[in-house]
Amino acid sequence: MTTPIPLKLSGSARKKQGDDTPLMMNTMGQPWKVLIVDDEDEIHKLTRLVLADYRFLNRYIEFHSAYSRQEAIEKLTTNGDFAVVLLDVVMETDDAGLQVAKEIREVLHNRFIRIILRTGQPGSAPESRVIVDYDINDYKEKTELTASKLFTTVTTALRSFQDLRTIERNRQGLEKIIDASKNLFDLKSQEKLARGLLEQLTSILRLDEDSLYMQTSSLSATPGDDDFIVAAATGKYEGSEGKMVSATLTPEHAAAAIAARNEGKANNTVFGGDCYAGYFRSHIGDETLLFLHGQKKLSSLDKDLIQIFSANMAIAFENFSLNQELVDTQREVILTLGEVVESRSKESANHVKRVAEYARLLARKLGLDSSDIELIHMAAPMHDVGKIGIPDAILHKPAKLTSDEYDVMKTHSEIGRYIFQHSTRPIMQAAGIIAHQHHEKWNGQGYPLGLKENAIHMFGRIIGIVDVFDALICRRCYKEPWPPDDVRHIIEKERGEHFDPQMADLLLRHFDEFLQIHQRWPDA
Fold it and tell me: Does the pLDDT value for residue 180 go beyond 50?
C-alpha cells in the first residue's frame, strides 16, 4: 500500500543487509537501534541501503524490521531501547501505523522513542490531523523523502532521543541524591549519594546510558590502611566492591586516583587523559574518592564542567558528613541517658545495649527496611527512660510490688512519652513511641493505653518482647536468671497473648542468636 521512495543510492551504499542484523562496526559506541515498520519489503531495503554508512556521535545504526502493526508492537515490547521508528501509515489497515504510534505512547508508555511517520497516501492521513491527534515527531510523504532528507530526518530524531535520555539520566541521578538525603539512617546512603553524583557527572558529559554501564566505568571508594577500598562500582568495575583501588584500576588510572588524594587538599580533582578522579575530605576527616573512566578523551570544556560540578559534589559530601555527625551525636546521647537510667535502677548498663542489639536482630528477621532497623537500634536504649521519675523506694524494692506501687511504676511509660513529645527528630520520636508502648500487650491487656494487636506500633511490639526476654534471662534485684528452656516456654505460652505471634515465632526460631547477644554483653 505504498509508493517507492525516490532515493539515489551511492555505490558505497549498495550493500545487502539481512533483517535485524547489525551492520559491521568499527566504533566505540553501541549502535542506534532503528525500527522500520512498513508492509513493502522494498522500503526496508532502500532505507537500509541509504543509511548503510550513516554514523551519528560515532555510532552506526542497527536496523530492525516489522511488516505489520502486530509485529511492530511485539518488537517494541521486547526491545525497549529503540531510538527511532520509521513508521508507515497504511499497512494491513488504513490506520495501522497510527495505531502503532498510539500504542507506543499510551500502552507501552514510551516517551523517548522518536516516531517518524511515512506515508505514500497522504490523503488517508492528513498531516494536520495526525500532528494534532497523535504524539509523533515528524511526518513525511514518501515522495518527498529523498536520501538527503532521510539523513537529515534521522539525525534530528537521534539528536532529540539523545537529549531526552540525557535529561532522564539527570532526573534519575537527582532522585538518587534526594533519596540519599532522606534516608540518613540507611547504612548505604553514602553509596547511593556517590552513585547519584556519578550519574549527574556522566549526564553533564553527555555520555550515553549504555556506555555508563557497558563501557564507561565508575566507582566510589573509602580509605583503607594504605589504599582506598571500593565501596560502589559500575560498568567493567562491577563486582569489585571491597577490593583495593590499586588492585582494581590499571596502574595509570590508579596513579591518577591516588594522586587526587595525595595533593594534600580537602577537595581535589585530577585528570588523566580519558579519566577523572575526585577526592573529597569533610571537616571531620571522612574521605571519599570518585573515579570516572570515560568513553572519550575529555575536552577543555568537559574539564571545566567537571571542575564546577566537583564543587557541588564537595558540598554534598560535606552536608552528608554533617548530617551523619548529628545522627551519631544523637545516638551517643541516647545510649548515655539509657545507661544512666539503668544505673539508677541498679540494673546492668549492658541491659540497654543488649535490648538495642536484640531489637536490631529481630527487626532484620522481620524484614524491615534498613532505615527502620537502624532507627529502632538507636532509639531502643530509651525504652525505660521514664523510670527516672519513679521513686527509689519502688524502683529498688526487692520484693513484689503492691497494687498501688505497681500503679506508680506503670506511670514510667507516660513519663517517657512526655520527655520526647515535643521533639521533631526521628530518633527522639521513635524513642517516645518505644517508651510509651513497649508495655502494651497483643491481647489488649497491657498499659498504659490497652492497645491491641497491630494498633501497637511495630517498634513498641519489638521492644516489648526483647525487653521481657532480657529481663527473664538476666538477674534482677527481685529474681535470679531463668534457664533458657524456661524462657523459651514462657515466650511460647505468651505467643498471641502478650507477644506478637510473628515476633514470638522469629525469636524462638533464632533463639540461639539472641542468646549470643546476651553472652556478648553479660551483666557485670
Answer: no
Distance CA 359, CA 383 (A): 11
Rounded to an integer, what distance in angstroms lies between the CA atom of residue 57 and that of residue 329? 51
- Mean pLDDT of the chain, nearest integer: 78
More confident residue, 55 or 262: 55
Active site residues: 387
Flag whether 167 is in a domain.
Answer: no
pLDDT tens per residue, range 377-417 = 989 988 988 888 888 888 878 888 899 999 999 999 999 89
Q: Does the model's pTM come out above 0.90?
A: no
Give the three-state DSSP class for 66: strand
Whether residue 476 sits in one domain with residue 387: yes
In this model, does residue 504 exceed pLDDT 80? yes
Dist. CA 521–CA 454, nearest whole Å? 31
Strand segments, DSSP code E, in 149-283 are 217-223, 228-233, 267-272, 275-281
Grid cell digits, residue 518: 546476651
The CA R_g of the chain, rounded to the nearest whole Å, is: 33
pLDDT tens for 447-473 read 999 999 999 999 999 999 999 999 999
- Amino acid, res. 186: D
Same domain, 58 and 158: yes
Q: Which of 61, 288, 52 is nearest to 189 (CA)?
A: 288
Contact 414, 436 (CB under 8 A): yes
**Is residue 149 in a domain?**
yes
Mean pLDDT confidence for 206-215: 33
Q: Which residues pair with 61 in a beta bridge?
A: 32
Torsion-angle region of 239 (φ positive above 0: left; ψ -120 to 50: alpha; else: beta): left
The three state secondary structure string of 256-314 is HHHHHHHCCCCEEEEEECCEEEEEEECCCCCEEEEEEECCCCCCHHHHHHHHHHHHHHH
Strands (E), 303-403: none
Which CATH number do you get for residue 43? 3.40.50.2300
Residue 1 domain-assigned (yes or no): no
Quote the number of domains for the chain. Answer: 3
Supply the angle between the helices 147-182 and 189-204 in degrees, to the nearest 10: 160
Checking if the pLDDT of 254 tops 70, the result is yes
Domain span at 359: 345-520
Cell numbers 556517590: residue: 194
How many of the other CB atoms lie within 10 Å of CB of 472? 18
DSSP states of 186-225? -TTHHHHHHHHHHHHHHHHTT--HHIIIIISEEEEEEE-S
